[in-house]
Specification:
Blueprint: E1 4-8, E2 11-14, E3 26-30, E4 35-38, H1 57-61, H2 69-82, E5 88-93, E6 96-101, H3 117-129, E7 138-143, H4 153-158, E8 161-168, E9 178-182, H5 184-189, E10 217-221, H6 222-225, E11 226-229, E12 232-236, E13 243-247
Parallel strand pairs: 9-10
Antiparallel strand pairs: 1-3, 2-6, 4-7, 5-6, 7-13, 8-9, 8-13, 11-12
Helix pairs in contact: 2-3
Length: about 250
């Protein structure tokens, strides 16, 4: 059984201020960063221009996102996806220090330059895949072509329930550029198996046609609009920076 390393998604130290512990959500991240839990509420996702310059503490403090726990949680997921293990960025916001550690490593060079378009899209896909309608932590296996998405034999063997795929641009300011499609096991089995009932962001919203329950643009069934590469999708519609999510178990 693969060992699991507990990493704080946001670690906070304070100077003369009392910070609510809810400001420091944590993810369970395995020795392979592709396997992680998620509990980010989709409502915290908002456009930000931090992609346009090197990722520094000053940039974070000026981002407009650190003034509330939801914004800090959102930044934590962005940086967790972008930087690699051993990297972190610390900001000084008002009277508090906030440290955001990296993990997956899609864009480790972001600390010295702006993001490329490809990096922006892969980070976006990673962040979108970790949204949870209920705010509940569920372990997912993230599959994709970007660096940092290697796997282990145990993960490949044990996480075989295909939930869906996520892609788009969380940094964009014009229109809704957050997309998802429904995976084959979610389409076939609905909310009847394993952790599928706890993962709703790739499913269509019956009360809001054209969108998922998390407010992402719903593009249909992944099998109809995506290109398959082994255990994941590489292109959905016209976007090549895609993250496929699989859940624990093997669908019946």
């Amino acid at each position: 059984m693969k060992s699991t390393l507990i990493l704080a998604l946001l670690s906070v130290s304070t100077l003369g201020a009392c910070i609510d512990q809810q400001d420091t959500p944590s993810d369970d991240v395995s020795a392979d960063p592709r396997l992680a839990t998620n509990s980010m509420l989709p409502g915290v996702i908002s456009p930000t221009s931090i992609y346009a310059a090197p990722l520094t503490g000053v940039a974070l403090a000026n981002s407009g996102l650190e003034g509330n726990p939801g914004g800090r949680s959102y930044l934590g997921y962005i940086i967790d996806c972008a930087l690699q293990t051993g990297q972190s960025v610390t900001s000084n916001y008002q009277l508090s220090h906030y440290t955001y550690p990296g993990n997956i490593g899609i864009a480790p060079a972001w600390t010295t330059r702006a993001l490329t378009v490809t990096e922006m899209r892969y980070i976006s896909s990673c962040v979108l895949s970790r949204a949870n309608y209920f705010g509940q932590a569920v372990t997912i296996s993230m599959r994709g072509d970007a660096g940092g998405f290697g796997t282990t034999v145990d993960e490949a063997a044990n996480y075989n329930v295909e939930e869906g795929a996520f892609y788009g641009n969380i940094f964009a300011t014009l229109g809704n550029q957050l997309h998802a499609c429904n995976g084959v096991d979610q389409v076939r089995d609905g909310d009847t198996y394993g952790d599928l009932p706890l993962r709703q962001c790739a499913q269509p919203d019956p009360n809001n046609p054209g969108f998922t329950l998390c407010g992402f643009v719903f593009d249909g069934n992944c099998a109809d609009i995506c290109v398959v590469n082994g255990d994941h999708y590489t292109t959905c519609n016209t976007q090549t920076e895609v993250i496929t999510t699989r859940l624990y178990g093997t669908a019946p």
